[in-house]
Design goal:
The chain is mostly helical. The protein has a domain of about 30 residues. It has 3 helices and no strands.
Length: about 80
C-alpha cells in the first residue's frame, strides 16, 4: 500500500522537484523575501475585499435618495 501526501494533486516527488527548482532559480536568501511579498499581497487583497463588502452593506442599509423628475418626464 502506497501513502501519497497530495498537495494540489501532486505527489511527494513532484513537490520535492518544485522546491529544488525554486531554490536553484531564486536562491535560499531570496525565497523568504518572495514569500513575505506574497503574504503582504494576500493581506492587502483581503483588506480591500473587506472594505468593498463593508461599503456594499452600508449602501444597502441607507435609504435611497428620492428621484427627482426631469423636465422631459413632466412633459410626458
Amino acid at each position: 500500500m502506497q501513502v501519497q501526501h497530495a498537495i494540489f494533486g501532486l505527489g511527494s516527488q513532484e513537490v520535492v522537484l518544485i522546491v529544488i527548482l525554486a531554490l536553484v532559480m531564486f536562491g535560499g536568501k531570496k525565497i523568504p523575501e518572495l514569500m513575505r511579498g506574497l503574504g503582504e499581497g494576500v493581506r492587502e487583497f483581503n483588506s480591500a475585499k473587506a472594505n468593498i463588502k463593508q461599503e456594499i452593506e452600508t449602501g444597502m442599509k441607507e435609504k435611497p435618495a428620492p428621484v427627482k423628475e426631469t423636465t422631459e418626464e413632466k412633459k410626458a
